[in-house]
Inverse folding.
């Protein structure tokens, strides 16, 4: 089993435990990447209505925005696809060697 699969299963286990405790939980999953991306497809982050977070979808760069989107999905029950990226030209300005894109799917556990 790869580390990514193991990490994903750990996040799902944590999310399931939080849900069992009565927390409302959303799961964010990296669905596609292009270019420079710190996390692989399948990487996950769990977010609760009370603000607990486990896992990562970006190594920190978009975590806050994804957590906010997860909170909206918990409130509305509506899943979301989020797209983030930086062009090669802008990458140098923000300290990256090259640009990249990442898509994340967020959904509430029911």
């Amino acid at each position: 089993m790869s580390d990514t699969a193991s990490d994903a299963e750990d996040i799902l286990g944590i999310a399931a435990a939080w849900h069992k405790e009565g927390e409302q939980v959303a799961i964010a999953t990296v669905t596609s990447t292009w270019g420079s991306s710190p996390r692989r497809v399948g990487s996950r982050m769990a977010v609760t209505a009370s603000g607990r977070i486990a896992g990562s979808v970006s190594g920190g760069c978009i975590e806050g925005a994804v957590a906010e989107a997860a909170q909206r999905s918990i409130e509305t029950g509506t899943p979301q696809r989020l797209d983030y990226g930086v062009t090669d030209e802008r990458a140098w300005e923000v300290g990256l060697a090259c640009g990249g894109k990442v898509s994340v799917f967020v959904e509430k556990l029911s």
